[in-house]
Write a structure and sequence with these properties.
The protein is built from 15 helices and 18 strands. It has 452 residues and is α/β, with parallel strands linked by helices. A 7-stranded mixed sheet has the order 14-11-10-15-18-17-16. It has a 6-stranded mixed sheet with strand order 3-2-1-4-5-6, with helices on both faces. Strands 7-8-9 form a 3-stranded antiparallel sheet. The longest helix is centred in the middle third of the chain and has 18 residues.
């Protein structure tokens, strides 16, 4: 049978940058990131580098004529909605790209790549001076602290100096500037967006890793892709910085060096939603069939499953209305949906801060008999004492679970298989059983049930 075609028409973006043989940065990172955002990525290669996760071993800059031919091929055939530039290597290339983008009326994101994450230099001194011409055509410039200092003479060390550096780049003709905070010391990463209307700070927790290869390329490409889809500049920056936080935390452990950012982390996470919900449903069904009445607390039981790279409650699947006891056994009040759990979901997410492989949890009743049954499990059982909970945590809605998980994990020498909350006046004692997969969660829960 002959089938009719069903073409898809995604927005198109263009990256003008160098090639990274290591696959984590440059053109390779740009195209992966654009695809992850639902944008068709086209490319103009400016330089071919021999590099990996440990450093740059060599680079060859393409002739300007070859770059011009690539640009002509793309612009003559595609409806390009946004352009992102990366490694341009030498002054003639920077000047040529400035001429190319001057001829188009689409958002242009300039990532002034000067030094690789490994510390290897990717732009000559003449190229640095030539950037002034290119910046005049920028919708957004995204320098890190070192690049901002080279371009403006101002070293971003805090919000005010970052704003000053951004304002100097505005004076050079850029519409907006994002001074990236990854190279600025501090517990949080503070990216400062500077426009004619003022400055806005996007704050994210710092991830303790050196696996940031390709982070600058990925962030700029994510912004360009979002602009190509019609988002505003602020929406694009906000979404891209959140995208980057996940890409860095769940980085790819490849190569002998620190590794690469995970360009597809968000895409993979979204793709796992259905399978995660189905996994929770299977556990719930097994609990109904086995009749876990003896483990259901007064507040009800819930089974929670997190997507592989979950960061929020909305990325955890659970039973809406929890599982309750009935005359005939137990049953879920309603179906499984994302965001249905509050306490158990927050506890699981907090536990994942210490062991990101944990994906499932169930809350069970707790008393002396259950405590004895827990001793039959293979693995550590931790606990936290609500009597030690600070007042500021108690008064902050939803903070107890995060605080409790932190106390429990910090007191354990290994990832606990269960965490006990002995409760307090008005708060029922509960135990949370944790697992990396549903089979393990069922096995541990049924082992406790059998020991009662």
């Amino acid at each position: 049978m002959t089938r009719i075609p069903a073409p898809v028409e995604p927005p198109v973006a263009l990256t003008i940058a160098g090639s990274d043989s290591g696959g984590g940065a440059g053109i390779q990172a740009d195209l992966k990131t654009m695809e992850a955002h639902g944008v068709f990525g086209t490319s103009v290669i400016t330089s071919v580098t021999a590099q990996n996760t440990q450093g740059v071993e060599g680079a060859f800059t393409l002739p300007v004529e070859a770059i011009e031919e690539q640009c002509s091929a793309v612009f003559s055939d595609f409806d390009v909605r946004a352009v992102k530039t990366g490694m341009l290597a030498e002054a003639p290339v920077v000047c040529n790209v400035a001429e190319e983008v001057a001829e188009i009326d689409v958002p242009v994101v300039i990532d002034p790549v000067m030094v690789a994450t490994s510390g290897d230099r990717l732009l000559d001194s003449d190229g640095e001076s030539a950037y002034e011409e290119l910046i005049q055509h920028a919708t957004l410039v995204t320098p890190n602290a070192d690049e901002a200092e080279v371009l403006t003479g101002v070293k971003p060390e805090d919000d005010e100096s970052a704003k000053s550096a951004g304002e100097k780049l505005l004076e050079l003709g850029a519409d907006a500037v994002l001074i990236k905070g990854g190279h600025v010391p501090g517990e949080q990463v503070r990216d400062v967006l500077v426009t004619e209307d003022g400055a806005e700070i996007f704050t994210h927790d710092r991830i303790e890793t050196d696996a940031t290869h390709g982070s600058g390329c990925t962030l700029a490409s994510a912004i360009a892709a979002r602009l190509a889809q019609g988002e505003s500049l602020r929406e694009s920056v906000a979404g891209a910085t959140e995208f980057m936080e996940r890409a860095v935390r769940y980085h790819l452990n490849v190569g002998e060096g620190p590794g690469s950012v995970h360009h597809l982390a968000e895409l993979r996470n979204d793709a796992a939603r259905d399978s995660t919900a189905e996994a929770v449903e299977r556990v719930v069904q097994s609990f109904v069939e086995r009749d876990v009445s003896d483990l259901v607390p007064e507040v009800g039981m819930n089974v929670v499953g997190a997507t592989p790279y979950a960061e929020t409650v909305g990325e955890t699947a659970a039973v809406e209305g929890r599982i309750t006891r009935t005359i005939a056994g137990v049953k879920p009040n309603r179906g499984v949906r994302f965001g249905a759990s509050s306490h158990v979901a927050r506890f699981l997410l907090s536990a994942r801060e210490f062991d990101p492989d944990l994906r499932f949890a169930v809350n069970c009743r707790f008393d002396a008999d259950v405590e004895s049954a827990l001793s039959t499990l293979s693995g550590a059982v931790a606990e936290f004492d609500r009597a030690a909970e600070p007042e500021d945590v108690k008064t902050q809605e939803g903070s107890t679970m995060q605080w409790g998980a932190r106390r429990a994990f910090e007191s354990a020498d290994e990832t606990p298989v269960a965490v006990i909350d002995r409760g307090e006046v008005g708060k029922e004692a509960i135990v949370k059983i944790l697992a990396e997969d549903t089979e393990e969660l069922q096995r541990r829960t049924f082992a406790v049930l059998s020991s009662l």
